[in-house]
Write a structure and sequence with these properties.
The protein is built from 16 helices and no strands. The longest helix has 44 residues. Pfam families: BPD_transp_1, BPD_transp_1_N.
Amino acid sequence: MSTSTYSVGAKRRLWIGRSRQLVSGLISLALTLFGLLIFTFILSRAAPVDPVLQLVGDHASQATYDQARHELGLDQPLPMQFLHYLGRLSHGDLGVSQLTQQPVINDLMRTFPATIELATCAMIFGALFGILLAAMAVFKPGSWMDHLARFISLLGYSVPVFWLGLLGLLLFYATLHWSAGPGRLDDIYTYTMTQHSGFVLLDALRSGDPAILKNAIAHLWLPVAVLALLSMASITRLLRAVMLEESNKEYVILAQAKGASRLRIILVHIFPNVLGTLITILALSYASLLEGAVLTETVFAWPGLGRYLTSALFASDISAVLGATLLIGTCFILLNAFADALTKWVDPRTR
């Protein structure tokens, strides 16, 4: 067999193997999403709140109750109800919120950009300082830098986020007046600035008014700092443990024996080998911020998905709760799938 024939055969086998991996990954993603749909459907049927009573009221007659139950399709077998549920979802129909009297899909499109903006800003700062702290801790284990990184990680894990938010409001808003307080904008700008995208920073930039941008940043930085601390603690703790484990491997010991500096070992040898793990850590941290900003948004009156979900829970608004749960679960699944694909691309050992 000639070399060229062998090369063509090897490339063909490689292409087939990668195609199988892609198909397998897509099937796994589809099954996971389908499992999420089943979970939300079961949750809607197991909820203690009767959607028919929410629609017709407690004083409706039995005939009215039965008619409404028939129109909602609740008198059909569960498999048929699930098929109707999938059919409505395929058309973007998540039901109507009892709280806002608006389609749930419209409420999610209105509130989710605020959560994305808050989580993304917090993720950027949390990732930058988290990676820096982990690198400082690994640079000289047992030093004051290592103790500082461990203390910040412990602080971020131990302090309740709602208590930290209230303390931040008391100190930086009520006492020092460094923050503009709850909400996304002052009322004077909320009703004068046209919000096209739902992202207040982007809309403030597009408005061309520096005062609006300054006010938006003044409202944003404190909740971002609270969430960034939570994210930074998670990233620092996990990345520090992974990098310390890599520091004891033979290739690092060999680099030390050759006289490489500690900084070069971290940047050139250790960091590239933990890049795949770092991607997974960042993806999980970002997904946690998207789903875990409920308390932060409630404390800071941030009109995002977390506050919307909290209000829906208190109002027993099942359609809104299920819509928000489905959106958060889908984001979590997609972020994990994206992290797996990116890890395989940057780290050949995982293929």
